[in-house]
Design goal:
By secondary structure, this protein is mainly alpha-helical. It contains ten helices and no strands. The chain is 80% helix and 0% strand.
């Protein structure tokens, strides 16, 4: 059981620093360790990310921090919440295509590897890419919808794709994008959790596992906020790039293992 807490704590700490929520680390690592089913890992990862983002966003607002752009962040969050509901339906549909539950795990891991690789490539080259400043509320909702759908399907809460979108479409710097990403993640994960509970689709797992992972998520949020204040944008970028490289490797390994398992 200690493994669940430690993975959640460390992943959430790094996730809070980089604004990726931690699910993009928790999901592939727990899949690799094979301690729970694919469905249970997705659900537990989402709950952990929700607890971390709830603490991080709430603490930032109580502290009067102004990094979150409500003009863009709120419609993005609304779209992400709706996208989270759509993503859970897509996951259920893909799951139904495979007699072996490992099939959907292989698809998830493969898609995560591709998404993470694209994110890494953009991050490395972002200084040479011209960014935009989207102002239309409906465009923000549409972008949020796509983010929420992809993140929910992959079971990663929000992940690195949020940062790329915030960099490119809204010209945000690294730490500002991280704060807005966590704001979006909170709403998308809350909607996804409520939909899962209401539909009776909660997978089987030991309740103590959820408690430990949620505690790790909150603890990681506390640790991550402290680290974030001590790091500049360059240090956050370096941490993010190194993390993406590791996640790509784990995701490829998981995809192959599920495919042949």
């Amino acid at each position: 059981m200690a493994v669940f807490f430690l993975v959640s704590l460390l992943a959430s700490a790094v996730g809070a620093v980089c604004g990726i929520g931690g699910g993009v680390i928790i999901k592939p690592v727990l899949d690799l360790l094979h301690l729970e089913s694919v469905q249970a890992v997705s659900f537990l990862s989402g709950c952990t990310v929700l607890s971390m983002s709830c603490y991080s966003v709430g603490r930032a607002m109580l502290a009067g921090e102004k990094r979150v752009s409500l003009a863009a962040g709120t419609p993005l969050a609304v779209g992400a919440a709706a996208g989270g509901l759509l993503g859970s339906q897509v996951f259920a549909a893909v799951k139904g295509l495979f007699a072996n539950p490992n099939g959907v795990g292989a698809v998830q891991a493969g898609c995560l590897a591709v998404v993470t690789a694209g994110t890494l490539a953009y991050t490395v080259c972002k200084s040479r890419i011209k960014t935009r400043r989207v102002e239309s509320k409906w465009a923000c909702v549409g972008i949020g919808l796509a983010l929420g759908c992809v993140s929910s399907f992959l079971g990663i809460g929000g992940g690195p794709i949020n940062l790329v979108v915030l960099y490119f479409f809204f010209s945000m710097e690294t730490k500002t994008a991280a704060a807005n990403s966590l704001y979006i993640i909170f709403f998308s994960q809350l909607a996804n959790l409520l939909a899962t509970v209401v539909s009776g689709a909660v997978p089987a797992f030991q309740p103590v596992t959820l408690v430990l992972m949620a505690a790790g998520g909150i603890g990681g949020g506390i640790l991550g906020r402290s680290l974030n204040k001590r790091m500049d944008n360059h240090a956050v970028d370096v941490l993010f790039i190194g993390l993406m490289a590791v996640i790509i490797g784990i995701s490829i390994l998981n995809s192959v293992r599920y495919a042949v398992g």
